[in-house]
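Recall the central idea of this unit: under ordinary conditions, the amino acid sequence of a chain determines the structure it adopts. In this exercise we apply that idea directly, starting from the sequence alone.
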Amino acid sequence: MAPSVPAVPRRVLVPFGARLAAAMAAQGPLCVGIDPHPGLLRAWGLDDDVEGLRRFSLGVVEALGGRVAALKPQSAFFERHGSAGVAVLEEVLAAAAASGTLTVLDVKRGDIGSTMAGYADAYLRDGSPLAADAVTLSPYLGFGSLRPALDLARETGRGIFVLALTSNPEGASIQHALDGGVAVAARIAESAAAENAAAENAADSAAADPAATEVASTAAAAAAAGDPAATVVASTAAPAQLGSVGLVVGATTGSAVADLGVDLTRMGGAILAPGVGAQGAGARELAEVFGPARRQVLASTSRAVLAAGPEAGSLRSALAAAVDQVREALQA
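Accordingly, the structure predicted from this sequence is:
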């Protein structure tokens, strides 16, 4: 009779939603964009070239890494410098990970079939030099076109932020349009809710598996410790406080969420909200836009913090002020 083989616990990464919730609780509900556009480079006394790009971007990571819930590099400002700029983006992602800070790579990709699978492989695959903790995606070829990225993100414990309601005037012609009497933005929120519900159901199934319980406490400990860069393996038995599929909703979109019937609370994931601070959204605007879903908001700012550079101390002071403002606004 062959000797029995001990059961191996099912081991997966702590989901992005759990790591983000822990980071927001520890550092505040703020994400700082790394947007090295020519004007900011000049303001920092840097040339608009690859070396200026590197000094600016790594300077932001050095100053703010470990002090902010997430950093959000805007891929376009790296891509405009060609392959050398993309190499700098790889350095930035690696430096942020080394600092224990979550990254949201702002790429807004959207395509179909093998092309979408290629984008997923680039940004969400373990071992890819461009892999981030989460990415922004565009669903306007149909939410289902994002399937390769959604599946790979869940497999690797990463997150997705799907464009839902943006503040640019052109966006309304698509996002506010009706599909069977339901606004397109509301359909996107429904689809995100379904993804998060499916992940939660899978977690419940895993929790019922005795082989998975051996590592259940590790997940809870990692989330409670606020370890955003945790690569510890853990059971999905401990449910995430936030779903790992979130939405991008502009903080200056006024009454659109309510007018279009977009159910952000049911969606369950984080809400990446550009437009807070320098772009004009304060407590009143946040209450109007997000209502009871404000606890899910990860406010995104760039200029309000980056304009204080290049000195690290000034950047950190600007960050602290921005976090205080966002906390107050979201609790108002």
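The chain has 15 helices and twelve strands.
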